[in-house]
Amino acid sequence: MALVIYTSGTTGRPKGVMLDHANVSAMCATTRDAIDLSDADHCLLILPLFHVNGIVVSGLSPLLAGGRATIDGQFSATTFFRTVQRVRQAVLAVAERRR
Asked: What confidence score (pLDDT) does residue 99 get?
């Protein structure tokens, strides 16, 4: 077992979804190939690590491609562009904010 990601619980109580190493590896390889990640890419991770998009797309996939990932912590609109300039990031994955 590599990860347990919890669902949002929209139809009941949140449930833990178990992802094994083969599943996570396949998701990372698919992401790497779909967005053509390479060792030249640097992803800025601003999504929470409890979100599978944050872990797979912004965190693990660039590493699988030989690139880099920077974890920025909690998103701040006032420091975001300075952070992008500092890390010279080329890839950014975000999710829509639900209200």
From this structure: 63
Tens of pLDDT, residue by residue over 12-32, are: 999 999 999 999 999 999 999
Could you tell me whether strands 68-71 and 42-45 are parallel, antiparallel, or unpaired per DSSP bridges?
parallel
DSSP 8-state class, residue 79: T
* Burial class of residue 51 (count of CB atoms within 10 Å of its CB; 0-12, 13-18, 19+): middle
Report H helices in 8-87: 21-34, 52-53, 61-64, 80-87
Domains observed in the chain: 3-92 (3.40.50.980)
The pTM of the full predicted model, rounded to 2 decimals, is: 0.81
- pLDDT number for residue 23: 96
Q: Are 51 and 25 in contact (CB under 8 A)?
A: no
Pairwise CA distance, residues 85 & 15, whole Å: 39
